[in-house]
Design a protein that fits this description.
The protein contains 19 helices and 14 strands. It is about 45% helix and about 15% strand. The protein folds into three domains: about 130 residues, Cobalamin-binding domain (Rossmann fold, 3-Layer(aba) Sandwich), CATH 3.40.50; about 240 residues, Aldolase class I (TIM Barrel, Alpha-Beta Barrel); about 55 residues.
């Protein structure tokens, strides 16, 4: 059996960083971890190939080689996903599809022969058994959540690692919180399931032996969902593993803001090699936090929580939302002020969207405020519900936030604020490679000569070089990322 696994194209959006990865001769930020894991669940004797359409072109010859195409994707990839299905149908290649897009919307998607929904550790074996008997069914789904001990090591050899900025691994699924707008608990439940510590370390070792060094994204939606296990078992083992191998990886992940309440947990994460965390701040407005059930953010000094994490050595990136029912006209200025004061350089501000299956979806449906299906891109100014604030005022205010915080002056000021707070760790890499020099020279050309905001770029380099010269590489990296983010903001 010959199987072609396909990851559809992600449009040029906030997290794609397409304009930034070109500075370092990469094609995409991350590989399709889900498909690499599914590949490892398939029979060993099957021939397997992977085409990630974000790093290479999908040719008809690739499709015709395959007995089956295995296709996955997220909401934001829907347009590319559906085009692949049409091509497969035209060429007569059967399609098996899964992932979060299909799990939420399979009844809206035409042309797929077999849907394998939810978590593949449970649903894929049923499909494979029926396929072997010659009687595969149209849909395989489950309301059960698998033990992650059944999750195999991804097939790294299917990748051309040189095309990516980072590799992905997963430690846990599920989140103990129940934010009204979030689809994570719908997909993965509120009980946090983790891999065994030894299982995860074996996965890291396989990645190391495959030749990878550098950035690794732990893709968990809330890495600290089971704090006691992290503190007592997992992180001490990861610290030992990392130190004994010369710190081959720098990790980043997603956490809830209450990480800032646990000094011991933060210390262990930093020692283990974590350098960046994404936090759902959402809003500085207490009533809006109550509305969306963001209990972990309420009743705290959010600015101080962010600064505490930065002082520990973690870079904080964060998500923000406007469009809550309790948002007042001043919310746009409040969001801008918070983001600038916090030094959160990479701030993803989105319009509230209503994903299928969430508590927010059910509420909006009951209130007859739903308009259509979310695009999966919450920075594209589309609304799939009727907001309490005027839609025109909401979109205009949203655009103003983006174009303010990603203006050259505000963005570079935020870098300085961050670097002033952030602790440079003694074991941070200090070597300067040829690719680093090449990226710096490209930054000088594009940001320091061609860009309209070039005077802020040079002001940043001079200021950082004078006040904290060891952080100059960080400043250049953030400036390069800002080149992409400014393009996204200006396109709104």
């Amino acid at each position: 059996m010959r199987v072609l696994l396909i990851w559809p194209e992600v449009p040029d959006t906030f997290w794609g960083f397409k304009s930034a990865v070109e500075f370092i001769d990469k094609r995409a930020t991350q590989p399709p971890l889900g498909l690499l894991t599914v590949a490892a669940l398939l029979p060993v004797q099957w021939e397997k190939r992977l085409v990630d359409m974000n790093v290479e072109v999908l040719e008809d010859e690739d499709l015709l080689w395959a007995d089956y195409v295995l296709l996955s994707g997220m909401d934001i990839q829907r347009q590319s996903f559906e085009k692949v299905v049409v091509r497969c149908n035209r060429l007569g290649v059967p399609v098996v599809a899964g992932g979060s897009l299909c799990t939420a919307h399979h009844d809206e998607i035409d042309g797929v022969d077999h849907f394998v929904l939810n978590e593949a550790e449970i649903t894929l074996p049923g499909f494979l058994e029926d396929l072997e008997r010659g009687d595969p069914q149209p849909v395989y789904s489950t309301d059960q959540f698998p033990d992650l001990a059944a999750t195999p090591i991804p097939l790294w050899h299917l990748l051309d690692m040189d095309k990516y900025v980072s590799m992905d691994v997963q430690y846990s699924r599920g989140c103990p919180y129940d934010c009204e707008f979030c689809s994570i608990t719908t997909l993965f439940g509120r009980r946090v399931r983790t891999k065994d510590t030894e299982q995860f370390l074996c996965e890291l070792e396989s990645l190391r032996l495959a030749g990878w060094r550098g950035s690794v994204f732990v893709v968990d939606d809330n890495f600290i969902g089971n704090k006691s296990k992290l503190r007592q078992e997992f992180l001490p083992a990861l610290v030992q593993w990392s130190e004994s191998r010369g710190r081959p990886f720098e990790f980043y992940t997603e956490v809830s803001i209450d990480l800032a309440d646990d000094d011991r947990l933060v210390e262990l994460m930093v020692r283990a090699g974590f350098r960046m965390v994404f936090v759902g701040i959402e809003t500085p407005d207490e009533e809006s936090l109550r509305e969306c059930n963001k209990v972990q953010n309420r009743g705290r000094d959010l600015l101080e929580s962010v600064r505490s994490l930065q002082r520990s050595g973690l870079e904080v990136t964060a998500g923000f939302i406007v469009g809550f029912d309790h948002d007042q006209p001043n919310i746009f200025d409040r969001q801008i002020r918070f983001i600038q004061q916090s030094g959160i350089v990479t701030a993803m501000v989105g319009l509230l969207n209503v994903p299928v299956g969430t508590r927010l979806y059910r509420r909006m449906k009951d209130e007859k405020r739903l308009l259509n299906t979310t695009s999966g891109n919450n920075v594209d100014t589309s609304l799939n519900f009727v907001p309490k604030m005027s839609a025109k005022a909401l979109v205009q205010g949203y655009r103003r936030i983006q174009q303010t915080i990603y203006s050259p002056q505000a963005y570079f000021e935020r870098i300085v604020t961050f670097l002033s707070e952030h602790r440079l760790l003694p074991f941070s890499p200090q070597k300067f490679s040829w690719p680093d020099l090449r990226a710096f020279l490209r930054a000088v050309w594009k940001l320091g000569i061609l860009d309209k905001g070039r005077r802020y770029f040079w002001k940043l380099l001079l200021l950082v070089g004078k006040r904290f010269p060891k952080k100059l590489p960080q400043a250049v990296t953030l400036a390069i990322q800002g080149f992409h983010l400014r393009r996204v903001a200006n396109a709104l």
